[in-house]
Design goal:
By secondary structure, this protein is mainly alpha-helical. 64% of the residues lie in helices and 0% in strands. The longest helix is centred in the C-terminal third of the chain and has 45 residues. The radius of gyration is 33 Å and the shape is elongated. The N and C termini lie far apart (117 Å).
Amino acid sequence: MVGPSRWRFGLVSNSRLFPARVLELLAGERDPAVRGHLCEALLAQFCSEGVEPARRLIQEPPPTSDLRHLRRVLVATCKVLGVRFPEFDAWHEESRRDGREERLKIKEIEKLTFEAGGDLELLAEALEVRRLKAQLAELQLEEKRLRAENQRLRGVLEGLQSWAEPARPDRVGRNDPCPCGSGKKFKKCCLRR
């Protein structure tokens, strides 16, 4: 007799019950990660019933790497099934771009692994340096954007100040503040100089 610890619970993927049970689980699930796995299971079995739940899940912000993967699976499955939806063309292009970026990252990690001689500590250090360089580049871009915005705002402020200040006549009146900046009236300060 086989003990309970060796029992495996699951649905045979080619069973008619599979899509119905997964859709039932999907309807009651609140965790986005689990919902993503359930949608992916439906799509992996080429169940057209999984297209709409996956589409709705992908549209929920924020986009994560898991959702980008689900988007690639959805696009591939829909191509095979001949199913189209409004976002298909845009998501197909985004999936291609994500795939290219992912392949480039993998090649870079392979290169770093080779350079590190398989040493995981050196690889971790190289990846950390890469992350910090990317973070520095982002900060430099943000600094450049903020400097440009600061310069623009200074120009606006100068324009407002020149517009708000009345034009001073060339001649200073006796009771006007002294142009030397002392705060006294002109007649008590620099008139007699």
